[in-house]
Amino acid sequence: MGKKLPSIYANKIDKELSNNTKISVTKNEKEQTEKNSDTRYKSKNINQKIKDIFNSPKYVYKASVIITLKDKKISRKIIGQNNNSLITIDNELISKNDIIDIEYEN
C-alpha cells in the first residue's frame, strides 16, 4: 500500500475567466426576446387575432373567447365569421368594428 499514484498535470490558469458572465447575458437576452414577443402579440390587430383563433389547434368547432367591446366585456363561444362580424353558437352576430380586443377564455 506504499505505492504513490502518478501526479496529475494541472495547467496554470493565468487569465480571467468569464464563462458565467456569458451565460447570464444569454439568459437576459432570452428574457428580453420573450418580452418582445409578448408585445408583438399585443400589437396585433383584431383581424389577425381572429384569424389566429380560427387557425389555432384549439379551435375544432367552437372557441370560447372573451371579447372586449367598446362598452363592455363579454364571454362567448364563436363558431364562425363573415366579412364584418363574428357568429356565436347562439346565432348572435358581433360586429368586428365594435371589438377592441379578443382572447381565448381560460
Explain how this protein is built.
The chain has two helices and five strands, in the order H-H-E-E-E-E-E. The chain is of the alpha+beta class and 106 residues long. It has a domain at 46-104: SH3 type barrels. The longest helix has 24 residues, at 19-42. The protein starts with 18 loop residues before the first helix and ends with a strand.
Short description:
With 106 residues, this protein is of the alpha+beta class. It is built from two helices and five strands.
Characteristics of this structure?
106 residues; alpha+beta; single chain; SH3 type barrels; 5-stranded antiparallel beta sheet
> What percent of residues adopt helix (DSSP H or I)?
25-40%
Structural class: alpha+beta
Coarse morphology: rod-shaped
In whole angstroms, the N-to-C terminal distance is 69 Å
Mean pLDDT: 80
How many E-type strands?
A: 5
Break the fold down into its secondary structure elements and pairings:
Elements: H1 19-42, H2 46-55, E1 63-69, E2 73-81, E3 85-88, E4 93-95, E5 99-104
Antiparallel strand pairs: 1-2, 1-5, 2-3, 3-4
